[in-house]
Amino acid sequence: MNQQSDPQNTNYNILPTSTLAIVSLIAGILGFTMLPVIGSIVAILTGYAARKETRAVPALAGGDGLATAGIIMGWIQAGLAVVGVCCFIAYFVFVLGAVGWSANQ
What total of structural domains would you count in the chain? Predict the structure, then answer.
């Protein structure tokens, strides 16, 4: 039982988390709560910039998962915005059609 009492030298290459990845994640969360359009645009733009930073050779920062989550939330919000605008337009087309139809009667 010859155990070494010194802590072993664990020289892991730990990268700092990308600030852009954190901003992308926070903007994605804010897009669902307070800033729907601005949050989604910021989440998408900073997410792609952060992924470029984290996938560089050699990697400059960590946080690829945070950037991916921000990108996904941003695109979901953009899709929901498009669906919302289409529903809004369809509603007014329906209302104007109903008003025009009742005026002809």
Answer: 1
